[in-house]
Amino acid sequence: MKERRINKAIHSLLFLFIALTGNAQRNTTVRASVDHNSILIGEPINLILEADIPENEPIGFFTIDSIAHFEFLHKGKIDTSNTNKGTVLRQLFRITSFDSGQWVIPSYRLLQSENLNTDSLIIKVNYTALDTTKDYNDIREIIELNKEKEIDWTWYYIGGGILLLIVLIYLLTRKKKKKVIEPSRQEIIDPYTEAMRQLDALQKENLPGKNEAKLYYSRLTDIFRVYIEKRKDIHSLQQTTDDLVRQLKSIQLSEQDYNQLAQALRLSDFVKFAKYIPTENDNTTVFATIKRTIEQIERLNPVSSVKEA
Is 257 exposed, middle or buried (0-12, 13-18, 19+ CB in 10 A)? Predict the structure, then answer.
């Protein structure tokens, strides 16, 4: 009887231990992988970055602009999938190398973490093997080409002169239309003034306080995209965030300001597409970053306001 009680107590403790272990808090995991570790020069390979983020962790992803000794053939969009345990982010890069040797794809750190890094990957890049069974080809002799007959341009000059004379006669004899003076003038708002007005209006609406975070970040990034397209002629409205971030390197911001802007734009994507719930500090920081960036671009390239008749 006593042994039966002891066994029952042991089973109860074991069951409790398993339950506690099963409910233990999951941590974020990251992974980098390639489909080939050895390639020929110019042969493409696929690099895949993944992050498995539980519900209790903040959502973030990797930022890759370049890889030493490798070139990007294609950068896929970040694929987001929600599971019953959290969120899985995945991105595919198609890369190649034209440098022979053994190269390392470095370890990458997750955006919001200081200790979550992927493993580094070693890739061997080799020349195509020489086929020793085939004979070498001799160097061919230089082939002389027949000289083309010289073209007589006399009639071309005469025809061009006659055409020019006809155009001059037409311009001198045509009646000039009188200019119609419009009774009112409409002021054209420059992109900077328009962006500042829209930012002030957006801030006064207080959309995050009305549980409209997704609409708030969509309008905030649209204001920046329209401004940068009008001011710097960067066609931002048709680009993904990653493509836009790469083009923004040309606007000569400092490295710190550039990184803060890139992080703000990517955080906006997480709110719009990955169901990330921003904090009040996120709302303030992203708004301030975009407004400060517009002001810095304007200081770097000042223009005067324009008016059109």
Answer: middle
pLDDT in tens, 89-135: 899 999 999 988 999 999 988 877 778 889 999 999 998 766 667 66
User: pTM above 0.85?
Assistant: no
Distance CA 4, CA 111 (A): 54
Share of the chain above pLDDT 70, in %: 79
Residue 60's domain comprises 29-126
CATH number of the domain residue 57 falls in: 2.60.40
- From 102, 126, 150, the end of a domain falls on 126
Domain count, the chain: 2
CA pair distance 76, 92, nearest whole angstrom: 5
Q: Is residue 270 part of a domain?
A: yes
For the beta carbon of residue 263, count every other beta carbon within 10 angstroms: 18
Of 129, 116, 146, the closest CA to residue 52 belongs to 116
- Residues 126/37, Cβ–Cβ less than 8 Å: no
- Rounded Cα distance, 161 and 155, in Å: 10
Tell me if 203 is assigned to some domain: yes
Res 307 pLDDT > 50: no
Model confidence at 30: pLDDT above 50: yes
